[in-house]
Design a protein that fits this description.
Layout (H helix, E strand, L loop, with lengths): L10 H14 L11 E2 L4 E8 L4 E8 L3 E2 L8 H13 L4 E2 L7 H9 L11 E3 L3 H11 L1 E6 L9 E5 L4 E7 L5 E8 H7 L9 E5 L11 E9 L5 E10 L14 E4 H9 L2 H26 L4 E8 L5 E7 L5 H5 L3 H21 L8
Parallel strand pairs: 4-5
Antiparallel strand pairs: 1-2, 2-3, 6-11, 7-8, 7-11, 8-9, 9-10, 12-13, 12-15, 13-14, 15-16
Pfam families: ATPgrasp_YheCD
Keywords: ATP-binding, Nucleotide-binding
InterPro entries: ATP-grasp, YheC/D
Length: about 350
Amino acid sequence: MYLSERKLEELAYFRKLSIAGRKLGLQVLVFTPDDIDGSKRKIKALVYDPPSGKWQRKMALIPDLIYDRCRYHGVHNYHKISRFRSQYNKLHYISHPLANKWNMHQALSENADIAPHLPATIRYNSQKDMIGLLKQHQRIFLKPRNGTGGRGIVRLQRISNSLFLMQGRDEQRRIIPPQRISETQISAKLSTWRLQGRYIIQQGIPLTLKDGRVHDFRMLIQKDGKGDWQVTGCAGRIGPRHSVTSNLHGGGTAIAMEKLLLQRFGSPDKVASIKEEAYKLGMDVAQFLEQKFGKQCEIGIDLAIDPKGKVWLLEVNPKPSREVFYRIGERVTYRRAITRPLEYALWLLKKSPSVRDEE
């Protein structure tokens, strides 16, 4: 989707995809719903030209396979992509859409292997529900059902029976500094957030490191060139000071998974056990979501490891970034993370040349 001034959010990633695709014999065409010539079923695509290092416009047929990287950022864009999908309903996508955070939690709860790793989660209906969960778990997160990138997330932590610590990020990802408030002040502070019907409330897992910063882990699970699920990699993310989220876009830093776990737990055996549990959970989630929602090519999952070493599943992202691997210097993993969707697409094409007619 175009941002302001017809800019694309992930143009650097699309350039790398284009270069990798060229080596595999695939042409990568970048387009948005705004680039469709409806009368001719053609697109005015962006095509990267490696010799000149520039993007060029080219009229082309809508490609046989669609790799959907649309991030909606607002109701207008959501309606635009919905209209596109409805109008061009015969197109073949290498991934199907997943559910919002609430419906995702409901779906994952059905799986006996995954359910024990899910934090307690409810829909926001009233402040009474929110305070009830907060008194039960000491800390909670308020998250928009359709939010991405750490936008609009609030953390509430119980300090005493009548006093709470509130902090978070607003819709523009700006940090909301920590503030001590009473129970009666909570609703006033959040009165403009339109929580009803838009937010979920989630049990907070203890994620604070010794220096006061929060952390979590991003795992990337992808289909390979044989159509099989593989864990491409997993890395730690540490948020900036006074932030309740660790997203890289919000100023977080990346660290190798083993390094962060060793700093926390000290024992290599403990680290190996946690890693094994996390990788199994990742594969279980990918396989289950594909059964539930249809074909997928990659899934990013955000994991938390509590002080006892238990693995928690915080969130599922159907359009994950892979920048975390570049940030920690795992260049081989980073390149693999870029090429795997292309290798999977190539496998689909070879397996069924007329993929348009599948399903």
